[in-house]
Amino acid sequence: MDSTVIATSLPAIAADIGTSPLTLKLAITSYLLSLAVFIPASGWTADRFGARIVFAAAVAVFMLGSIGCALSSSVTDFVFARILQGLGGAMMTPVGRLVLLRSVDKSALVNAMAWVTVPALIGPVIGPPLGGFITTYFSWHWIFLINIPIGLLGIFLALKYIDPIKSEDPERFDLVGLVLAGIGLAGIAFGLSVAGLNLLPWPIVAGLVGVGTVSMTLYLIHARRTGSPVLDFGLLRLPTMRASIVGGFLFRLGIGALPFLLPLLMQVGFGLSPFQSGLVTFASAVGAMGMKTLAARIIKAFGFRNMMTANAVVSSAFLAACALFTISTPLMLIFTILVVGGFFRSLQFTAINTVAYAEVEAPQMSRATTLVSVNQQLAVSAGVAVGAFSVETTLALHHQTELSADVFGPAFIVVSLISAASAWFFWQMPVDAGNEIAGRKAIDISSRKGAEKRAATDAVKAATEDTQNARDQRLG
Fold first, then answer.
1. N or C: lower Cβ tally within 10 Å for the chain?
2. pLDDT attached to residue 469
3. What is the model's pTM?
4. CA angle in degrees (0–180, nearest 5) for 265-269-275
5. In whole angstroms, what is the distance from residue 349 CA to residue 474 CA?
6. Ranges 98-102, 332-336, 355-359: which has the least confidence
7. Dihedral of CA 320/321/327/333: which sign?
8. Mean pLDDT of 312-325
């Protein structure tokens, strides 16, 4: 939520600290940049110092960044405070997930991940309208100061309820790998984010992405020579992790563009206020909340592979339906499509987040959570960039210079097709992928025993028939 809550408040903040809203968009990209740089270190830090201490410290760092944002009097102060917030956020998400994975039995993992997925989907949706509400009726400073009581409560709960889990034999810290991966992820994520915001010329954006790509290539070479890489791409040998990372990236890329495209369509295309737009787009969060109680049952009934393959196409279809929205489309119809689409998207995210760990052993969990978190961050940045590029391309093809409702349709189609392409990678998983955590193990065993029993019966029957045929031939 904190990565998006200031989106509608930028004009008020910019006016107060004496800069332009366009320049202040650096506050959004600097937060994402900080996340990309520090997430790779989260797994090792949790193993070395303990997940409870690291999680509580991450919340404290995030609070300090929030105070810095509220007290900022210049754009420089504000950007540095946002970077500090990003450092705290980079440790919170993967470390929090690591705590969950090490505390919850695999048989309960689907339900646990459903709880994790709901706030992750709701946060980016309610961020903009909440920021607009606070700025309109209070002061923009409260966007950040409200984090202080919430953060203190979070630290108290973490110290009280999270076990002091840490590795008995932490691996050597891969400093070279962290630098290479940090530069690589920062270049790619920051470049893609800036492309989505139209903050820098395209040659500079291309240069950032290019430097990031070269650095990540050097990291891959380095990772093959070290036994404890900060990003363990060797986990991609596991079919479920590979499907979650590759297929999940494509799915998130398409869906990640939705929080960027939809508010623009509502505000620029349909003339709604930021608060009204936020209330409409909040419908997808309502659908996500409805999914929580049904996710485990659906996955158990159909299995991960079948459900994820079909649901990727269904979710993408609801995303593509946004291309049909016009200024005359009834708001209730828009709301309904977003609610139902939010349900299927949330179901898919729950499955992606869960199946990633189906084959991961306990000693590899910290590396796995780090890899998954980095993948999510890059996918969201790429989604915004692809959505923005699609809109700009449509503008150029229509010879338009100003945004209007009709330029958003092609962008929704493009990102929905990318999202639907993830179905192929989910279909490549084994048919019994994740059956243990889906609660389908007993079903599969009984089915297999039944098949074996039928095969044995058929074999006996065939042998009896062969014997009878041989006897008939001798008698003949």
1. C
2. 58
3. 0.77
4. 65
5. 67
6. 98-102
7. negative
8. 93
CB atoms within 10 A of CB 410: 16
Give the residue among 352, 357, 372, 367 at the shortest CA–CA distance from 105: 357
Q: Counting beta carbons within 10 angstroms of the beta carbon of residue 317, is it exposed (0 to 12), middle (13 to 18) or buried (19 or more)? A: middle
Encoding tokens for residue 347?
């179901």
pLDDT tens digit string along 171-218? 777 788 888 888 888 888 777 766 655 667 778 888 888 998 999 899
Q: At what angle do helices 331-355 and 274-281 cross, to 10 degrees?
A: 60
Confidence of residue 389 (pLDDT cuts 50, 70, 90): confident
pLDDT at 443: 45
Cβ 12 vs Cβ 143: under 8 Å: no
What single-letter amino acid sits at 157? L
**According to the 3-state scheme, what is the secondary structure of 391-447?**
HHHHHHHCCCCCCCHHHCHHHHHHHHHHHHCHHHHHHCCCCCCCHHHHCCHHHHHHH
Determine the pLDDT at residue 328.
87
Assigned CATH class of 1-106+130-171:
mainly alpha
Question: Among 35-39, 115-119, 322-326, 389-393, whose mean pLDDT is lowest?
Answer: 115-119
* Cβ(115)–Cβ(109) below 8 Å: no
Which two three-digit tokens encode residue 188? Answer: 């790619």
Superfamily grouping for domain 234-432? MFS general substrate transporter like domains (1.20.1250.20)
The conformational region for residue 233 under phi > 0 = left, psi -120 to 50 = alpha, else beta, is alpha
Indicate the residue type of 206: A
Quick one: which of 203, 420, 174 has its CA closest to 320? 420
